[in-house]
Amino acid sequence: MIHAQLVAFFVALAATAGLVPLFIGLSRRFGVMDLPDPRKVHTHPTARWGGGAIAGGVFLGLGAVGFFIPWFSKLLNFHYQVLEKGQTVGVLSLRAQLTGVIIGGILCVVLGMWDDRKSLPPVVKLLTQIIAAYVAMIYGVRMAGLAIPGFGFVTFPLLVSQIVTLFWLLGFMNAINLTDGLDGLAGGICAIAAGTFLFVALLQSDTKILLYSKQLKLASVLAAAVSGACLGFLIYNFNPAKVFMGDGGALFLGFMLGTISIIGTLKTSAVIALLIPVIVVALPVVDVAFALVRRARSGNGLMTADKGHFHHRLLALGWTQREVVLLVYVMTLLFSMAALLLTFFRGKV
């Protein structure tokens, strides 16, 4: 099985690294350049369509696994009958879930790249994110319930399931988007987060619940591709950056991490499972929460950019971009280690 994750990781890494120069050229050709201004920390015009290379790398990594690893095709053929009071009320298909992730991911990267060029109204961006989330749900990617010790698996009503899933995915997308403020910052956080999700899924994939076992294996392949793509992108994005991921890359990566966590890391037997994906992205989540409170108090719009983020404050204290980014990497790694320890010690499903 591990061969599939290795192929996904290395093909995504190589493909992304190979595609970045193409998207740098396209950014220059269509004038999609991030120009310096007093609010920003970079000092020269930089291409903003790196997200296209990241998405392309992930999809090529998944395509390579599907083509070269027969096990993956067999995995995607898995179907599970959803029963309610002894009656079949639906069929959950791993192939359908992957299709929903891919279509939703394409919507996110296209939306973001369009916004990088045209600066779309916030309501248009939010509506498109909601559509991407609902596409994933239509294909079976949703939080159907939660396993609570002593109570068993508590199934959410359909409306509650949709609302929880929607806010979960929107939270991931916008947390990563708002974190993308320094060279290599969001890309490194996502690489570490996806790598952690990969190991969590592998640690849990031997569960006796067949459906969960299959979903965790799918999540591990997705996480491997995302982690590889992020590392391939960092070759060009680490300070001094030659390209930015833009909203296209940030929304895409947030969507991917959100769906991977739903398919994989939440398939556990304890409420603490909810903490695992949150712990991994704890730093951007906390930073975004403080940003929203800060903007609300100042009377500015919640989506109005400012220089009050954690990394901006460190820069104001005299830290260099590289020092700030490396510090955030270390902090994210520590959070990820905590998540892995929770996974390892809380027992098997």
DSSP strand tally: 6
Strand content: 5-15%
Class from helix and strand fractions: mainly alpha
- SSE order, as H and E? HEEHHEEHHEEHHHHHHHH
Compute the CA-based radius of gyration. 20 Å
Distance between the termini: 20 Å
Calculate the mean pLDDT score and round it: 85
Overview of this protein structure:
With 349 residues, this protein is mainly alpha-helical. The protein has one domain (2-345). It has helices spanning 2-29, 50-68, 70-76, 94-118, 122-138, 158-179, 185-204, 210-237, 246-265, 275-280, 282-298, 310-316, 321-345, and strands at residues 33-34, 46-47, 79-84, 87-93, 145-148, 152-155. The longest helix has 28 residues, at 2-29.
Observed structural traits:
mainly alpha, 13 helices, two-stranded antiparallel ribbon, 349 residues
Task: Itemize the secondary structure elements and their pairings.
Blueprint: H1 2-29, E1 33-34, E2 46-47, H2 50-68, H3 70-76, E3 79-84, E4 87-93, H4 94-118, H5 122-138, E5 145-148, E6 152-155, H6 158-179, H7 185-204, H8 210-237, H9 246-265, H10 275-280, H11 282-298, H12 310-316, H13 321-345
Antiparallel strand pairs: 1-2, 3-4, 5-6
Helix pairs in contact: 1-2, 1-8, 2-3, 2-4, 2-8, 2-9, 4-5, 4-9, 5-6, 6-9, 6-11, 7-8, 7-9, 7-13, 8-9
